[in-house]
């Protein structure tokens, strides 16, 4: 007999982080672990409700990878008086933050296996903050499966 699929959804508020890439896996798992434990097989969809930060999955061990990613993003998307951006309503980091957010994205889909996020050993969820004066960030986590 087939098991009916189930759903769960929760909005998580991440505290403000300074500009850069930050490992947030443990905070997200802590917030959803009660619901997550009820799924044997499924998908977790994470959606960041902001346009000047992003989510990605990458190295979870060496913080140099997060620092190097921030260095790369700042070189590829310049800011300041010599940058060509028209949109600067909230400061010189405004448009670069939107571009970086579009480059990395605002959503992730992660498999669920036996009540846990099924990521590789060295994978972690990053919040990439692209503003100099960040605020808290909301992530909607939707779980679906059996």
TrEMBL record:
Signal sequence, renumbered to the chain: none
Name of the protein in its database record: Secondary thiamine-phosphate synthase enzyme
Organism expressing this protein natively: Lupinus angustifolius (Narrow-leaved blue lupine)
Gene3D superfamilies documented for this protein: YjbQ-like
Pfam families from the UniProt entry: YjbQ
Superkingdom of source: Eukaryota
Coiled-coil annotated residue ranges, if any: none
